[in-house]
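Researcher: Next sequence.
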Amino acid sequence: MTKQYELLYIIPATFTDDDVGGIESNVKALLEKYGATIDSTERLGKFKFAYPIKKVRHGHYIQVRFTADGDSLAKIDEALRISPEVLRQLILRADEVGSEKYELIQFTEVNLDNKESDDRPRRRREDSGDASSESKDDRKAEISSGVAVLEGEKKDDASKDEAPAVKISAEELDKKIDSALKDNAEKI
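Model: Next structure:
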């Protein structure tokens, strides 16, 4: 029984626009090889990924609507997966996708500190003597008990100039991170 499907695949941006056209025709030929009839093909654009995939940070997104037999989908998916030209692919039934128009947007990084740059000097680690090994053990115990140490990791009398340790639970830390993300998202 033939149904209509939608394929979304990503070609690495290391290929030029001319190369992308050739890869598109290769994918069309692959679909037709397994008995699919192509209804439409649309280039959605070149976008930055949220994280690198196989050391690639950008990719060309291409959407193909086709009609095929359900038995041939596994073969099509496997052939696309082993293709070196296709970075990622996703095949869905057209009725799952829906008919409403959607728009892809560029990925933007979120800065939690709300600063342009981090001008704070880095704190040095002191790894001398038994006192440091005791403080490491204390930190490990605090982390394993669900308590996070935010500032002032030292607990001896020599660190009176530093800020005192602030202990909060993991749940409170999650709440603070969520509120900071929400505040930053509202500013965008």
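Model: The chain has a mean pLDDT of 77. The radius of gyration is 26 Å.
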